[in-house]
């Protein structure tokens, strides 16, 4: 089994690994910002990345053929912006043919490094005002297709007893499914222009139809959106979020909003929903904004999703949590508290969480400097396989725990 070798790591060796983890992950938030580049520089650099892929993976004959076609077509394109859609489609082709698996990590990394460039187009550049509509249309199709693919996979995947499937929807938005339950975390769609948002709502609705409960970490619009709350509430499903204050910008789950069940400092002790799902909410923050760190147990398997927490004091609650099997923590976060939590678990039973998922790359609503790149994620995680089995997702992709393969 994929995880067996991690269970055999000695306690002393694990403590050494934890020190490395603390060093690798105790970085400043957004410390490795992506450089803003004009379109022609991005075009040059993405094509250099494509050439590197061709040189590194000659065994992927179909992919190499498509990569060479991309370069040829771009060189002869009448529109100098051709590369944006073409390079994105190339990265998607590589990822679809090489789904999540421990055996596919190197080629998937190459695809993600290509994907970084079309994602980081500066759609608000004053020197290139015509790029915005083109880029947003590409992003709408990219994310809409991913949501449709995820909805179909969630619907068609029967999860065996003792296992869990996890799909990435967008940013920190995930759907988690076990043999008997299906829940959502921070489900949202990209913040594009109005008509494109409406189109993405239609793509995302089939995802929301399948969850039993929605956990929302905090009020920021890439995690909590009114249309999602309205849709889920209309279906009669619970929405669990931290209470905020009535004078903050929408959405504002305060005591007058009947859509929400409130969970922050009053949910450190386990709560059990009517369907048997158990959860805790640890009282975190992003800056001054309350951010619930949810610890949810489905069919005996526990997942922690940290939202955008930057509050290290939540680590004081970790020793009392018991085993957490899957940890979902933002790629940009200062994660020293993660190391403390792992260390507490090592003292208890010599075992670390079996999966680390590090999302929140390429938030569409951010400018390029704050649009976290896959390049930065790989730099922060370092040699991931020596620390903890770790997974980098594209939107719409899923992985099965504890196997480590796509569902």
Which properties best describe this structure?
about 15% strand, Metallo-beta-lactamase, Chain A, 7-stranded mixed sheet, alpha/beta, about 400 residues
Describe the structure.
Helix content is 38%, strand content 16%. It has 2 domains: 4-30 and 158-361 and 378-401, Ribonuclease Z/Hydroxyacylglutathione hydrolase-like (Metallo-beta-lactamase, Chain A), CATH 3.60.15.10; 39-121. The protein is built from 11 helices and 14 strands. The strands form 2 sheets. Strands 6-5-4-3-2-1-14 form a 7-stranded mixed β-sheet, covered by helices on one side. Strands 7-8-9-10-11-12-13 form a 7-stranded mixed β-sheet, with no helix packed on it. The protein is globular and about 60 Å long. The chain has 407 residues and is α/β, with parallel strands linked by helices. 46% of the residues are buried. The protein has helices spanning 4-7, 11-25, 39-56, 61-76, 82-97, 105-119, 131-156, 194-208, 226-234, 336-349, 374-381, and strands at residues 164-170, 173-177, 182-185, 213-215, 239-241, 260-262, 267-272, 278-286, 289-298, 301-305, 326-328, 355-357, 390-391, 398-401. Helix 3 (39-56) packs antiparallel against helix 4, helix 3 (39-56) runs antiparallel to helix 6 (105-119) and helix 5 (82-97) runs antiparallel to helix 6. Helix 9 (226-234) links the parallel strand 4 and strand 5. Residues 1-31 have low confidence and may be disordered. The two termini are 16 Å apart.
